[in-house]
UniProtKB/TrEMBL annotation:
It comes from the Eukaryota. GO terms for molecular function: UDP-glucose 4-epimerase activity. One of its GO terms (biological process) is monosaccharide metabolic process. Residues 81-291 form the NAD-dependent epimerase/dehydratase domain. InterPro entries: Epimerase_deHydtase, NAD(P)-bd_dom_sf. GO terms for cellular component: cytosol. The lineage of its organism: Eukaryota, Viridiplantae, Streptophyta, Embryophyta, Tracheophyta. This is NAD-dependent epimerase/dehydratase domain-containing protein. SUPFAM superfamilies: NAD(P)-binding Rossmann-fold domains. It holds the Pfam family Epimerase. It comes from Vitis rotundifolia (Muscadine grape).
Length: 361
């Protein structure tokens, strides 16, 4: 059977000229390695997703650590949803870079949720030297049994009540840097997309209170706002929803005109961005980053790209959710209005360059 290969990687050069900024060579691609089927193509959407800081500071190369200090990192990971795969890839990336990693997943190890990816693939973490734990984030100190860490990433909480115990424990335990996975969905709708960091956010979004609290408690912190994550091991339908219908020669129902715009990014690239923040805390500190591709894709375009990767014809059917009595939030994997962010400033901030790749068959 053919395989859909991911050409996505965010490569950080370890040896650079003294007068240059770090080189970023990201390649974002759709990857679907589901248990049911796989494909022979590599589906690329965008060259980069690095996001812009909220402050106006610009860092010289001397600020960044070419030879990173090895860190002890704790990842507090959600046990469901599209963000679950982030902690998995981040742990593997850190371990591959020589850091010590403990990933603490919410809940119990023997729960049914742990039978699904990415949790069913946690042996890839332990075999690389990582440690896996399960428990209640409100009792994180007890779960880690007094272990000390340099960095904590909260990839679980969506509101202050959930994240505050982790932040408070981390601060009292001497953790130096706190990272938080927020959401690009917290921006208020705008007539002038794409969103950039600093745009108005929804006052009632739980992530907003979390971001504010972290910035008040920690001196070294960074916030990451992803949109739609793709990649093998995802706990939530994204690209696989399209592939599932395409390979069965089923119509692909898309609400509205299909011209709505969105952003996607491969989780491997986000994990590389997070690793860069760990290894260069001064560069990341005090900033919020939109973790999205710098090239939007329409909903129709997403479907067509998946069809190209699968090497199959596609039959797109547009419909009005209200007219047919369908709840599009449950029937379709993406929001049905244009929702996109801008990563242009972060590339300038990090001093990076990008190279595009396109669909390869």
């Amino acid at each position: 059977m053919a395989t859909l290969l991911s050409s996505s990687s965010l490569i950080f050069s370890s040896k650079l000229p003294s007068n240059s900024s770090p080189s970023l060579t990201p390649t974002l691609s759709l990857s679907s390695l589901s248990q049911s089927y796989s494909f022979s193509s590599s589906l690329s959407i965008s060259p980069s997703f690095l996001t812009s800081p909220t402050s106006t500071k610009r860092l010289s190369f001397s600020t960044l650590n070419v030879k990173a200090q090895k860190k002890k990192v704790l990842i507090v990971n959600t046990n469901s949803g599209g963000h679950a795969v982030i902690g998995f890839y981040f742990a593997k990336q850190l371990l591959g870079s020589g850091h010590e990693v403990t990933i603490m997943t919410v809940g119990e190890e023997n729960s049914d949720k742990m039978k699904k990816p990415p949790f069913s693939r946690f042996s890839e973490i332990t075999s690389a030297g990582g440690k896996t734990l399960w428990g209640d984030p409100a009792e994180v100190g007890k779960v880690v049994a007094g272990a000390a860490f340099d960095v904590v990433l909260d990839n679980n909480g969506k509101d202050i009540d959930t994240v505050r115990p982790v932040v408070d424990w981390a601060k009292s335990s001497g953790v130096e840097q706190f990272l938080f996975i927020s959401s690009a969905g917290i921006y208020k709708p705008t007539d002038e997309p794409p969103h950039v960091e600093g745009d108005i956010v929804k006052a009632d979004a739980g992530h907003v209170g979390v971001e504010t609290y972290i910035s008040e408690v920690f001196g070294s912190w960074a916030i990451f706002r992803p949109q739609y994550m793709i990649g093998s091991g995802n706990n939530k339908d994204c690209e696989e929803w399209f592939f599932d219908r395409i390979v069965r020669d089923r119509p692909v129902p898309i609400p509205g005109s299909g011209m709505q715009l969105t952003n996607i990014a491969h989780v491997r690239d986000l994990s590389s961005m997070l690793t860069l923040a760990v290894e260069n805390p001064a560069a990341a500190s005090g900033n919020i980053f939109n973790c999205v591709s710098d090239r939007a894709v329409t909903l129709d375009g997403m479907a067509k790209l998946c069809a190209q990767a699968a090497g199959r014809p596609i039959n797109i059917v547009h419909y009005d959710p209200k007219a047919v009595g369908v709840d599009a939030k449950k029937a379709f994997p993406f929001v049905i209005c244009t929702s996109m962010q801008n990563p242009e400033l972060p590339r300038t901030f990090w001093g990076g360059t990008a190279s595009q790749t396109f669909l390869k068959t």
